[in-house]
Task: inverse folding
């Protein structure tokens, strides 16, 4: 669609021309104002805050400083936190994507009650993530959690013991939190892929059948390549979401013991309790990190070609 | 044409909305303390000590305020009662937005004294000497007292007599060796031997109680940090052994005080360090009768502690609304013995004034706590403590799973960087 400016038969005076070009501002002005106030301004404030010397009760001491960043670099927990964040994002996103590909395939088939099944898939998405995380935390309670009751009955764990305290041991806590993160990420990803599947024309499949391609051949040579735009969009959005994911970790372990189940997002929040400037520095790092990761990912996958195909 | 008009309308609407938002924000920051017709309204912000709707601090303070307003018709007091979980952040938000309260009761922020926002105790109390002197340094800045203790508490060791009898243990533990042996016996019954809450909620208190048992502390003489002193490392090395043997709840670094106190109240924990605030939880649990638990001095390495941790919650009076005379009238009224004692009776806490403490000395429940008060050990009183404390709360629990010396060493480094001012 092209939008045509009304043509004038004469060249108007400069002020009129300026006024005319400003006319468009009237249309996009509110949107720009919204983006500036809600998106850009907080980023500016955040970056500004990361260079301020802020006392733990919020008083801002005069002058600017880079000490927030140097303190952050020297934080002994930082390396572990960053490493965990990588595992968290890569693990959750890749498993989610793998499962969603299978689920999308399933939901694309015709079967009785398909509509009901598709609707049911929305549940983890519709429920508050915080609630889901809380339910899992209770289910894993070392003294009374149903998961442990079952495992106890099967003879795998002893109630109230270290083995039943899943969320108290950093490794297992991370595992269970990733399970929850995958659980809540599945619906969106599956729907994104499902809509991608539905755009693949039947003729392509017919042609491949005529050429004698088997099921797996068809999947890898036709479905997956044609699904690429959907996969790219789903991955990008998931990476950002999972990276910024806060409620799951906060509700299940508060990032503890110590910072041993923290990602950069929860670490930033914990720092904010007493080290506001350092927390702002961590926020800026998070912001840059997510932008860089997404840009690298999009570049590596040459998304322009894929999405414009 | 139609759409264009719509665009104009939209723009006008947006502008109007923006103007409205600005106006709303403007009016919200306008001074709320009013001076209509010679009447002054004091803004009193208090933390809530209640365990339910029946005994909120709002109720307690309303009793004082009603009596006070009767005597002083020209002063009104507006009470804001905030739950403990949100108290710090709400007070900080008020101050950051320059929407100052006149009086707060709860946590005290020495930084506000540093910023010159507060009246000193002498400016708003006729008899500031009646405040328990042991807590004076805690609320002082540059030698002047700004934080006025309102209520205090001290720590003791609570133990479950029922479990002790069942495990065949004769008396309360006095030494760390007793603790270890008794906890192992109770663990065999399938219960938690020693409840060790090293999660973020109050890890700094639990840790200090163990440090004291070995003659350690966070600071030496208020001048230098000693978080990784050999006594402190030894205390955590002992705890690490206790945890490894399974004599505590699993993974103490992830367990907070309140849930563990509730487990003690439910009769599932043999021993736990507590304050008088644990008593109402035990009573509410209805599992342990008063003869089935007891509270004794905390076990130390070679014998019970003579000095225990004492903490206080403070009153602070803000200068910004210039209500000094009215604040003084109200605080003199509120600090009367009868209100101090009513507070302690309602919430199982200890008084903060000399006269009220004297009145309670022979009380059966509180007597032993009161006698310990004058020797109470305090947290450091410097302005860095708030940050050091948060760091301790978040990380010290890993010292029982990792290496005590390296965890305490890291804390020491952070504390040293923050200084001792």
Result:
């Amino acid at each position: 669609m092209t939008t045509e400016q009304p043509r004038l038969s004469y060249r108007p005076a400069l002020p009129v021309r300026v006024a005319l070009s400003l006319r468009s501002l009237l249309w996009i002005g509110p949107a720009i104002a919204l983006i500036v106030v809600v998106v850009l301004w907080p980023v500016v404030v955040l970056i500004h805050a990361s260079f301020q010397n802020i006392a733990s009760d919020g008083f801002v001491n005069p002058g600017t400083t880079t000490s927030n960043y140097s303190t952050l670099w020297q934080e002994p927990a930082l390396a572990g936190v960053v490493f965990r964040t990588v595992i968290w994002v890569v693990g959750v996103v890749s498993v989610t994507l793998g499962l969603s590909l299978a689920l999308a395939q399933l939901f694309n088939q015709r079967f009785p009650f398909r509509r009901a099944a598709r609707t049911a898939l929305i549940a983890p998405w519709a429920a508050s993530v915080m609630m889901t995380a809380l339910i899992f935390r209770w289910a894993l309670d070392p003294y009374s959690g149903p998961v442990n009751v079952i495992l106890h009955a099967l003879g795998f764990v002893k109630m109230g013991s270290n083995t039943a305290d899943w969320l108290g041991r950093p490794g297992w806590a991370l595992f269970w939190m990733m399970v929850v993160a995958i659980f809540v990420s599945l619906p969106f990803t599956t729907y994104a892929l499902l809509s991608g599947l539905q755009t693949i024309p039947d003729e392509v499949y017919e042609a491949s059948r005529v050429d004698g391609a088997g099921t797996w051949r068809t999947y890898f040579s036709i479905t997956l390549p044609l699904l690429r735009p959907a996969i790219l969009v789903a991955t990008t959005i998931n990476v950002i979401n999972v990276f910024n994911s806060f409620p799951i970790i906060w509700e299940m372990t508060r990032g503890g013991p110590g910072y041993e189940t923290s990602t950069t997002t929860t670490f930033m929040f914990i720092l904010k309790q007493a080290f506001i400037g350092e927390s702002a520095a961590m926020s800026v790092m998070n912001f840059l990190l997510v932008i860089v990761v997404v840009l690298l990912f999009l570049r590596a996958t040459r998304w322009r070609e894929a999405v414009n195909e | 044409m139609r759409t264009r008009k719509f665009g104009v309308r939209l723009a006008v609407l947006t502008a109007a909305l923006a103007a409205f938002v600005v106006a709303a924000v403007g009016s919200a920051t306008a001074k709320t303390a009013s001076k209509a017709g010679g009447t002054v309204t004091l803004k009193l912000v208090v933390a809530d000590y209640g365990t339910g709707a029946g005994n909120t601090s709002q109720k307690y303070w309303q009793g004082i305020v009603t009596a006070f307003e009767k005597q002083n018709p020209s002063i009104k007091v507006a009470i804001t009662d905030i739950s403990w979980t949100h108290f710090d952040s709400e007070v900080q938000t008020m101050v950051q937005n320059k929407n100052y309260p006149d009086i707060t009761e709860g946590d005290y922020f020495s930084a506000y004294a540093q910023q010159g926002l507060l009246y000193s105790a002498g400016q708003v109390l006729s008899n500031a000497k009646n405040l328990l002197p042991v807590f004076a340094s805690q609320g002082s800045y540059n030698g002047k007292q700004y934080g006025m203790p309102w209520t205090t508490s001290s720590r003791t060791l609570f133990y479950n007599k029922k479990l002790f009898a069942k495990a065949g243990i004769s008396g309360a533990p006095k030494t760390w060796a007793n603790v270890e042996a008794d906890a192992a016996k109770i663990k065999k019954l399938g219960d938690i031997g020693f409840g060790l809450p090293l999660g973020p909620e109050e890890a700094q208190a639990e840790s200090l109680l163990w440090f004291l048992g070995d003659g350690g502390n966070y600071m030496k003489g208020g001048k230098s940090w000693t978080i990784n002193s050999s006594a402190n490392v030894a205390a955590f090395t002992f705890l690490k052994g206790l945890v490894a043997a399974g004599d505590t709840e699993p993974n103490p670094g992830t367990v907070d005080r309140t849930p563990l106190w509730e487990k003690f109240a439910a009769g599932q924990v043999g021993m736990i360090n507590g304050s008088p605030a644990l008593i109402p939880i035990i009573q509410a649990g209805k599992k342990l009768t008063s003869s089935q638990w007891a509270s004794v001095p905390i076990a130390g390495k070679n014998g019970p502690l003579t000095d225990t941790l004492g903490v206080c919650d403070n009153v602070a009076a803000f200068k910004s609304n210039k209500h000094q005379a009215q604040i003084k009238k109200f605080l003199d009224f509120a600090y009367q013995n009868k209100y101090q004692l009513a507070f302690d009776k309602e919430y199982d806490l200890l008084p903060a004034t000399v006269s009220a403490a004297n009145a309670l000395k022979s009380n059966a429940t509180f007597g032993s706590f009161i006698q310990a008060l004058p020797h109470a050990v305090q947290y450091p009183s410097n302005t860095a403590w708030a940050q050091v404390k948060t760091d301790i709360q978040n990380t010290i629990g890993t010292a029982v799973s990792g290496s005590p010396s390296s965890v305490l060493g890291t804390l020491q480094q952070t504390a040293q960087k923050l200084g001792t001012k």
The longest strand of chain B covers residues 40-48.
